[in-house]
Amino acid sequence: MKLTHHGHACVTIENESGGSRLMIDPGSLASDLTGVARPDTVLVTHRHEDHLDFAQLAKVAPDAATPVFVPADALDDVRAAGTADVRLLAPGEVDGVRGFAVTAYEQPHEVIYETLPLPQNIALMIEGRIFHPGDSLQRPEGRVDVLLLPLGAPWLKLSEVIDFARDVAPRIVVPIHQGGLAEAHRRLHGGLLAKLLPEGTELVIPAVGEALAV
User: Fold this and answer.
1) Domains of the chain, residue spans
2) Ramachandran region of residue 196, left (φ > 0), alpha (ψ -120 to 50) or beta?
3) How far apart are CA 49 and CA 51, in angstroms?
4) 51, 73, 74, 116: which sits with the fewest CB atoms below 10 Å from its CB?
5) What is the domain class of 2-213 according to CATH?
6) What is the pLDDT along the chain (214 residues), one digit of tens a residue?
7) What share of residues in the chain are helix, strand, coil (percent, to 5)?
């Protein structure tokens, strides 16, 4: 498979045959998605703007040819925004994702502050290999080959992220969710990860828009 990071939490995954693409989390902190190869399916982990931006979504799912799967608490807003084919993203095997086997897990959004309400967060396992946690640091079931690891957020403590990565111990870690970080902080966090990831785990930091074979 090929993985392309579009900045922040947004990625495209292309299957082995190259015949299908899915996109996860076209949010406001991703790069401009104008001109990006159109995905066959869009999946949204939760409704926060940095994961779901309606202007970005319209660029990659302008009509019913691209279904958009969202958690229950985002359905009404996405439909009201004019998205043509909106479907429920619920825990379990996800039917209707073209070219991919996808398993969804309801995992709690990490706490930003105790009085702030939190959205439903749906973590995603793609083809039993690539794990996108949304905004959760809850360990997924089973073995993870490629972990998309959040690196910068108001809910995030770097030591907890490192512990999460060490606990999961994937073959590859690809940092995501760093759209709000200054470049100096990205380098700092990347350096710490490189030192503290477990033996056998490779840190890969692709440039925005670069396709990575995984």
Assistant:
1) 2-213
2) alpha
3) 5
4) 116
5) alpha beta
6) 999 999 999 999 999 887 899 999 999 999 999 999 999 999 999 999 999 999 999 999 999 999 999 999 999 999 999 999 999 999 999 999 999 999 999 999 999 999 999 999 999 999 999 999 999 999 998 999 999 999 999 999 999 999 999 999 999 999 999 999 999 999 999 999 999 999 999 999 999 999 999 9
7) 20, 25, 55
